[in-house]
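The material for today's practical consists of a large collection of protein records. An example says more than a description, so a record of this kind follows:
***
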Amino acid sequence: MNTPLNVLFLCTHNSARSILAEATLNHLGAPRFRAFSAGSSPRENQQPNPLAIEALQRAGIATEGLHSKSWDVFAGPDAPRMDLVITVCDNAAGETCPYWPGQPATAHWGYADPSEVPGTHGQRLEAFRHTLLAIRRRLELLVNLPPDRLDRLALQHSARALAGEEARA
């Protein structure tokens, strides 16, 4: 595989789960994978949730350049061609997505929204850390797939199968 597989993670606000997935896959998967994230209704101030950034930094994962953005950015003619699009929240999974050039493989990996957890800063940060670990487990499986499992049809099957991995773990 000479060029990296482009993976887009989608969530409604592109402030927590999709940001965690983008940063983690770029950390674990380079140079075989290149991750992006976006949302259907990104945060107005274009900033990820500060707890997502803190959880990533505490895990030793780079956060430079992370910002909330609309999925429309990736549907335009100048956007990178996606090989795999993964929704990570139930709201984005039920929304009508834009047309993705090249008809990428798709999958849904649902995670509870750590932003919804009440409590102290420490309790809320723990919810983000827990979500980050769950995302990381799946991404470790993805990046370790053999090359023959990463062509378009196999990639869709593999990504969708990984959605069930957590239930068995």
Summary: DSSP finds five helices and four strands in the chain. The first strand starts at residue 5 and ends at 10. The helical segments are 17-29, 50-58, 90-94, 121-143, 152-168.
